[in-house]
Amino acid sequence: MSAPLDIEGRAAPPRSNGELVFAEPWESRAFGMAVTLYDAGAFTWPEFQAALIARIAAWEASAERDEPYNYYRLWLAALEDVLTGLCAVSTDEVTTRARALAHRPLGHDHRDHSGLHDHPH
């Protein structure tokens, strides 16, 4: 299964030459978390898409735009909305885990520190 990403419109992720674009490692992690949870059946794509469009609309309607537009901040907020709405996790749990992921060192995703692959062949 693969997430049916929008190609155009408000909910479409940033692309360059048709390829997804991530400015920071945490953005690809947020993207991956949502797609993995969708693939696992945690929620439907229309549920996530509606939450993302709502977050984008709320940002656009905000009179006080404290932060510049960042698609993946809204993506992550939409994921939090969906998961807390399903009572899968609490808002505090999502915030704690998101902060932990965001603060992992650069390159962490490319090395295995778990020891899971350190078995003899």
Secondary structure layout:
Blueprint: E1 15-16, E2 19-20, H1 25-39, H2 45-61, H3 71-85, H4 91-102
Antiparallel strand pairs: 1-2
Q: What key phrases describe this protein's structure?
A:
mainly alpha, 121 residues, 49% helix
Summarize the structure.
By secondary structure, this protein is mostly helical. It has helices at 25-39, 45-61, 71-85, 91-102, and strands spanning 15-16, 19-20.
How would you describe what is shown here?
A two-stranded antiparallel sheet has the order 1-2. Helix content is 49%, strand content 3%. It has helices at residues 25-39, 45-61, 71-85, 91-102, and strands at 15-16, 19-20. β1 and β2 (19-20) form a beta hairpin. Residues 110-121 have low confidence and may be disordered. With 121 residues, it is mainly alpha-helical. α1 runs parallel beside α3 (71-85) and α2 crosses α3 (71-85).
State the helicity in percent bands: 40-55%
User: What structural category do the secondary elements indicate?
Assistant: mainly alpha
Shape: globular
User: What fraction of the residues are assigned to beta strands by DSSP?
Assistant: under 5%
Total number of helices: 4
- Indicate the low-confidence ranges by residue numbers: 110-121
Biggest sheet record: 2 strands, antiparallel
Rounded Rg: 16 Å
